[in-house]
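[step 3/7] fold_predict: job queued, chain A
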Amino acid sequence: MTRILTGGLGRTDVAHLVQQLAPDGIDVAESSDMDAASELRSGRADYYLGTCHTGAGASLGVLVGVLGSGACHTFGRAVPRDDQVAALLAAGVRVFGFAVDRIDAVAPVIVRAVADAHGTPGLRVT
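[step 4/7] structure written:
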């Protein structure tokens, strides 16, 4: 089971979208950034999707401090391509930040890449 935590301003919206999209084998839960850092460090969670107004600050601040910058990436207000997210996952990135007004565009790309990386491809809704 792959576990994705969501946090920040849009955590509820991201969690609902991930629940709708994710194939079987991917679990999602809302979290605070502090709890997410602990869950990720201990291996009880696999990924964190954080949102704030810009996608570059509050969405990842605590996680960068606890897990290090190599485990975290912000898309800010940009919408990534599938291959960009796949490359980040392959490089060990597990924490993603993005702007709250980009949830509908960014979250599906990340969920699709996570599902593909874990051998559970096939989003429920595109």
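[step 5/7] annotate
The chain has a mean pLDDT of 92.
The CA atoms of residues 23 and 120 lie 7 Å apart.
exit 0
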